[in-house]
């Protein structure tokens, strides 16, 4: 039996905000609620209205899901560990006199801009109140951080004549952050 | 009882609803209605994000199954979830006994 338009409209509001797997779960629950009203002898139209009312405001449900969005947690973890990795790399740059490295000015500016963009994406994911927006920002931010850390490790190995203990600590911090990025991506991508 | 009055206790209530075995979201709501005699006035839709939160916390696990041609996500308690439920029950009993004693002017039946 097809479900009335009011249920379709309700699910469309959820689908605009939430991933398909979550909407599918909610659709199943809503269908069962609707069927239970039909079993009680309620006509299809009022049954659909009652089911939707019993389920609650779809915007509130979407906002509740946004609060438990795994992208938020992953992005917060990366933002919190950022200063540690940043301090380690700052120590590397100072102790190895990075200003003397043969890196073009444009590349330095480009790297800085990319870093700021990635931090912005992670902040958007960590604070986002819209599930899809936060998830997309989280995916881009996690990939960006993993790429930046990988570039930092590779660049330091190529540009610096020797591997110092400070550099090892920075590389370790970056490796941990790459692992955190992958760990954060998994639940976002499987939703 | 309305949702806002349940705030802070929703997680324990959901864990209790899963104690007897795995349930999907709608069945969790039905179990809560039955156990409370229909006194729990909670928008059904809001228990789904709460279940996801408990899953992220490792207190329950969710898995998809197909019933009647429709996929649905069932949740079951983990060992950590059972321990958490047991702890929340003990906390609640102590809290309820303390507040009841204070409100009704009787001595606490089991002073700490």
Shape of chain B: elongated
Main β-sheet description of chain B: 3 strands, antiparallel
The strand line-up of the biggest sheet of chain B is 1-3-2
Task: Show unreliable segments of chain A.
Answer: none
In whole angstroms, the N-to-C terminal distance of chain B is 30 Å
Q: At CATH's second level, what is the architecture of chain B? A: Orthogonal Bundle
What is the mean pLDDT of chain A? 91
Tell me the name of the CATH homologous superfamily of chain B.
Winged helix-like DNA-binding domain superfamily/Winged helix DNA-binding domain
Query: Which two protein chains have the largest interface (Cβ within 8 Å of the partner's Cβ), and how many residues from each?
Result: A-B, 24 and 18 residues
Number of strands of chain A: 0
Helix-strand string of chain B? HHEHHEEH
Account of the 3D structure:
The complex is a heterodimer of chains A (about 190) and B (about 110). Chain A is an all-alpha fold and about 190 residues long. Chain A folds into 2 domains: about 5-65, no CATH class; about 70-190, no CATH class. Chain A is built from 8 helices and no strands. Chain A has helices spanning about 5-15, 20-40, 45-55, 60-65, 70-95, 105-125, 130-160, 165-190. The two termini of chain A are about 30 Å apart. By secondary structure, chain B is an alpha+beta fold. Chain B has a single domain, classed as Winged helix-like DNA-binding domain superfamily/Winged helix DNA-binding domain (Arc Repressor Mutant, subunit A, Orthogonal Bundle). Helix content of chain B is about 55%, strand content about 15%. Chain B has helices at about 5, 10-15, 25-35, 45-55, 80-105; strands spanning about 25, 60-65, 70-75. Chain B has a 3-stranded antiparallel beta sheet. In chain B, strand 2 (about 60-65) and strand 3 (about 70-75) form a beta hairpin. The two termini of chain B are about 30 Å apart. Classes of the chains: A mainly alpha (about 190), B alpha+beta (about 110). The interface of A and B includes residues 54, 57, 58, 68 and 187 of A.
């Amino acid at each position: 039996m097809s479900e009335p338009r009011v249920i379709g409209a309700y699910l469309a509001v959820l689908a605009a905000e939430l991933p398909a797997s979550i909407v599918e779960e909610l659709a199943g629950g809503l269908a069962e609620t609707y069927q239970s009203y039909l079993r009680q002898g309620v006509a299809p139209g009022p049954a659909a209205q009652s089911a939707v009312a019993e389920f609650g405001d779809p915007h509130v449900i979407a906002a509740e899901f946004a609060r438990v969005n795994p992208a938020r947690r992953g992005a917060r973890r990366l933002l919190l560990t950022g200063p540690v990795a940043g301090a380690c790399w700052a120590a590397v740059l100072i102790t190895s006199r990075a200003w003397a490295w043969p890196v073009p000015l444009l590349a330095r500016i480009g790297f800085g801009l990319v870093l700021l963009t990635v931090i912005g994406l992670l902040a958007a994911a960590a604070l986002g109140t819209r599930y899809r927006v936060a998830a997309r920002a989280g995916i881009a931010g996690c990939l960006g951080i993993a790429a930046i850390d990988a570039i930092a490790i590779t660049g330091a190995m190529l540009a610096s004549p020797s591997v110092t203990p400070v550099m090892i600590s920075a590389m370790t911090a970056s490796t941990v952050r790459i692992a955190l990025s992958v760990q954060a991506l998994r639940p976002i991508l499987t939703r | 009882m309305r949702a806002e009055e349940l705030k802070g206790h929703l997680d324990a209530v959901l864990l209790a609803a899963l104690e007897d075995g795995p349930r999907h979201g709608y069945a969790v709501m039905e179990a809560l209605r039955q156990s409370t005699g229909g006194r729990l006035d909670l928008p059904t839709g809001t228990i789904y994000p709460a279940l996801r939160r408990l899953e992220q916390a490792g207190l329950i696990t969710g898995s998809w199954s197909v019933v009647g041609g429709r996929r649905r996500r069932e949740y079951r308690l983990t060992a950590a979830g059972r321990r958490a439920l047991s702890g929340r029950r003990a906390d609640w009993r102590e809290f309820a006994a303390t507040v009841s004693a204070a409100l009704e002017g009787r001595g606490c039946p089991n002073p700490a």
